Amino acid sequence: NTKIACHDTTILAAGRDKLLRIWDIRSPKLPALMFRGHTMPVLCCQFDDYKVLSGGEDRQLIWYVASCRCW
Description:
With 71 residues, the protein is mainly beta. The chain is built from no helices and seven strands. The chain has strands spanning 3-7, 10-14, 20-24, 33-35, 42-47, 51-56, 61-65. A four-stranded antiparallel sheet has the order 1-2-3-4, with no helix packed on it. A hairpin with a 2-residue loop joins strand 1 and strand 2 (10-14).
């Protein structure tokens, strides 16, 4: 299953492929950003203007922190 979180015009999607993708719905052809780090499927995700949090079957909680808004 794909997990989705939304914020303004941005969508964060995570799933069985172990990746997180940030999409801008104004330009949805390609993801704006991709995050790697999990070794097993991602089960949950959430984000705001400065950070992304994900949890996976690998029992890892991974934070991705940006020093500026990048999406």
